[in-house]
Amino acid sequence: MEPKKNPQLDVNRNSLLYFFVGMTLVLLMAYMALEWKSYYPTSDWETSQVNPDLLIEDEPPITFQKLELPKPKIQTPPIIDVVEDEKDIEETVIEASEPDQSTEVAPIESIEVAEEEITEEIPIVLVENAPIFPGCEKEKTEEDKRDCFQKMIQKHIRKNFRYPDPAKEMGLQGRVSIMFTIEKDGNIDNVRLRGPHKSLEEEAARIISKLPNMKPGQQRGMPVKVSYSIPITFKLN
């Protein structure tokens, strides 16, 4: 037989009520904490608390300034000198410089035209009259002279060609590109070389240095500098 519990002594009898009451108190305290406002203490002497009607407005005094009028300027009259008329005055007659029908025209042959000196280098394929290699003077046409120039350059290279010993020992071979300038006096100058090794470039420069003096190229009847380029191939057998 189970003992009967007294419902008045049951602990869980009003637990739900106590829960809602506690929650209500917590929410009320949280609301009061969020809505709580505090202010700093203020003084009666602050400017914002002073009655603006009690302030005394300082009005500047009205003063009058007497302006002095400038003194009038007395301008002296100009002195006029009377000059007597000159009777004998020679008038200079200026003649018109513009040409008219009676103006003599100078003949074209008597007009001297200043010759313009050409300072830049002209490639041999563009110059009017190519340089003439010694032995090519007998050629009549300009095309024949250019062909003779090419052949004589090739002949000169074959005649003076010598394979450098250091290049042979190291097995060096390749092509050396050469560009030089035939000056206005026919001399060879401004030699530029590019090759695979210095020894090959030195041998190519030695061959070019042995070129003879040539007849310079001409442009519009004037001697000019002419640039020429040629490769030399070094190949071991």
TrEMBL record:
Q: Which family does it belong to?
A: Belongs to the TonB family.
Lineage, highest ranks first: Bacteria, Pseudomonadati, Bacteroidota, Flavobacteriia, Flavobacteriales
Q: Which UniProt keywords apply?
A: Cell inner membrane, Cell membrane, Membrane, Protein transport, Transmembrane, Transmembrane helix, Transport
**Localization, UniProt:** Cell inner membrane
Give the species this sequence originates from: [Muricauda] lutisoli
Q: Where are the transmembrane segments?
A: 16-34
Predominant cellular place of this UniProt entry's protein: membrane
The record's annotation in Pfam families points to:
TonB_C (PF03544)
Q: State what protein this is by name.
A: TonB family protein
